[in-house]
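Now for today's protein:

——
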Amino acid sequence: MSEAPITAPAQNGASARTSAPNVIDVRGLTKRFGEKTVVDDFDMTVPRGAIYGFLGPNGSGKTTTIRMMCGLLKPDAGTGTCLGYDVVEQTDLIKARVGYMTQRFSLYQDLTVRENLEFMARLHRLDVNAKVEEALEEYDLAPRAKQLAGQLSGGWKQRLALAVACLHEPDLLLLDEPTAGVDPKARRDFWDQIRTLARSGVTVLVSTHYMDEAVQCGFIAFIAYGKKLIDAPSGEIASRVGLTTWRLEGAGLGAIADQLEGAPGVEQVARFGSALHVSGRDAEALSGAIDAFRDREGVTIEHARTGLEEAFIYLMTGAADNFS
């Protein structure tokens, strides 16, 4: 089942959605489990209708952060609002307007698709028949309405979970590793649906450690070891990190990589398929390091656009050094 408890009747769709420009505005959120600080002094502002990605390795604090911001988990320190309500004092009001899709399929496996939808519709005090029929059609689940949820493929389980999370027309949708283990077509269909929801005014928070998930988001926050490393529109991440990148292709790239590691101006050497991406913030020094290979037979060198993956690797490496 959804992990967001239902404690207040749902409102009707878009009319209940906050008119404030920012759906989430939190400052200094901190969470500890025992002596371990899982999230440390976290600030975030999320605009209405955004698709916001939380990117970071497993165990970095992504899910904990999202749950605190949305009133699903009480912080040990910090303040803020979500959907206009206080994230510490008014959590029940927030939870009633949130849809939550967990990474692990958490619906009843021994109920049919229709029965799962009917059960959740009753919990939300909705018009059961009308809302279930609407969800079956909107998410193309009607042909599988009588199929047991446990017998669905990964992609169809995902679709059912999204339909359940959106049944009460939430203002805010939380997706925890939403496309893990599903095929490429199911992923594409899923993200088409998410973009449709965002255009209708639903704000979407996505926790992921997959780059192909992150590139679907309009905004990205990189998180590691409980700290936010950067938070910006996805198109600005690379420029804010400030890396210059060169792309090398051809023979002997392994040996070239070994020679470039630690060279002046070279801060990152990473293999991308059949190419080598070499990056650094000092463009002049980096170019000097690359010059040694410009006349190498069989090797082509060209400027490359620094992408999210280079920025992610760079930030994660720095974070690991800081917290080691």
Notes: Residues 13-237 form a domain with the Rossmann fold fold (CATH 3.40.50.300). The mean pLDDT is 88. Residues 245 and 279 are 4 Å apart (CA to CA).
